[in-house]
From TrEMBL:
It is a peripheral membrane protein. This is Ectoine/hydroxyectoine ABC transporter ATP-binding protein EhuA. It is found in: Cell inner membrane. Keywords: Amino-acid transport, ATP-binding, Cell membrane, Membrane, Nucleotide-binding, Transport. PANTHER family: AMINO ACID IMPORT ATP-BINDING PROTEIN, GLUTAMATE_ASPARTATE IMPORT ATP-BINDING PROTEIN GLTL. Pfam families: ABC_tran. GO terms for molecular function: ABC-type amino acid transporter activity; ATP binding; ATP hydrolysis activity. SMART domains: AAA. The lineage of its organism: Bacteria, Pseudomonadati, Pseudomonadota, Gammaproteobacteria, Oceanospirillales. Gene3D superfamilies: P-loop containing nucleotide triphosphate hydrolases.
Length: 262
């Protein structure tokens, strides 16, 4: 890792078209025992895209995200990240995981570390940056999520929305090529959801590539470049938000959207 934060360079310069998608899932299969959870899932995420995944509970959304950084192993198919097939045994998965940020429903902050410590930990331990440099990058990441003033706060003193913004700072501090979000606002008090979505919207404007599993239909509709509807372990359909929300092709998509908007 260089001294400057590459995320900033990427944000400052216009996004050059990449020759291949950042992330591509090809005919991905996953089962737990006899239970088929993902069936022939194909998905491409282009650089700078914000893709929202929606679908009923149990449709395989979290499993798909966990396969993207190989927290789960596929039973078949490929996960191509930045041109590398992560299902190959030759890939150094620890190195790859540094380039894939992950934000969970339960923020998973370390309670014994302040906000700054949570964000700088991987920069020190994993990226092996000197303390000062790690702290400078971490403060910068906290500023990007509007949490610079809370750098010295303990997680327990922060609201859920603030904790989730610290978790997002932790994910982006490592300058990942993509950030995966698994229902980042589902555990939040409704009044706090907006602040987290605003941060995600800003990241998208900075050019961050994001794959977001969410129940926030309005966010998906307003901010996503593309929306993917999953059910029963399959991608049922995907498209630009306006098309998917107003003229879904599949009756399952229509039924889901109707149910969520009630
Ligand atoms: N580690 C696991 N072992 C067994 N079954 C699992 C495991 N993880 C998920 N599942 C099952 O896989 C299905 C899809 O789960 P999940 O990916 O969490 O769906 P979603 O995120 O869309 O709600 C569910 O039926 C769930 O019970
Ligand atoms: Mg889930």
């Amino acid at each position: 890792m260089s001294t400057a934060n590459p995320a900033h360079r990427a944000a400052a310069s216009p996004q050059a078209p990449a020759p291949y998608p950042i992330l591509e899932l090809i005919k991905l299969h996953k089962r737990f025992g006899d239970h088929v959870v993902l069936e022939a899932v194909d998905l491409r995420i282009e650089p700078g895209e914000l893709v929202c995944v929606i679908g009923p509970s149990g449709s395989g959304k979290s499993t798909m995200l966990r396969l993207c950084n190989q927290l789960e192993r596929a039973c078949g198919g490929q996960v191509i990240f930045d041109g590398q097939d992560l299902t190959s045994p030759l890939v150094s998965i620890d190195r790859v995981r540094r380039q894939i940020g992950m934000v969970f429903q339960q923020f998973n902050l370390y309670p014994h570390l302040r906000a700054l410590g949570n964000v700088s930990l991987a920069l020190k331990r994993v990226a092996r940056l000197p303390r000062r440099e790690a702290q400078a990058i971490a403060l910068d990441a906290l500023a990007r999520v509007g949490m610079r003033e809370h750098a010295n706060a303990w997680p327990s003193t922060l609201s859920g929305g603030q904790q989730q913004r610290v978790a997002i700072a932790r994910a982006i501090a490592m300058s990942p090529k993509i950030v995966l979000f698994d229902e980042p606002t589902s555990a939040l008090d409704p009044t706090l959801v907006g602040s987290v979505l605003a941060v995600m919207r800003r990241l998208r404007e900075e050019g961050m590539t994001m794959l977001v599993v969410t129940h926030e239909m309005q966010f998906a509709r307003a901010v996503a470049d593309r929306v993917v509807f999953m059910a029963d372990g399959k991608v049922i359909e995907q498209g630009p938000p306006e098309q998917l929300f107003t003229t879904p092709r599949d009756p399952r998509t229509a039924a889901f959207i109707k149910g969520e908007s009630n």
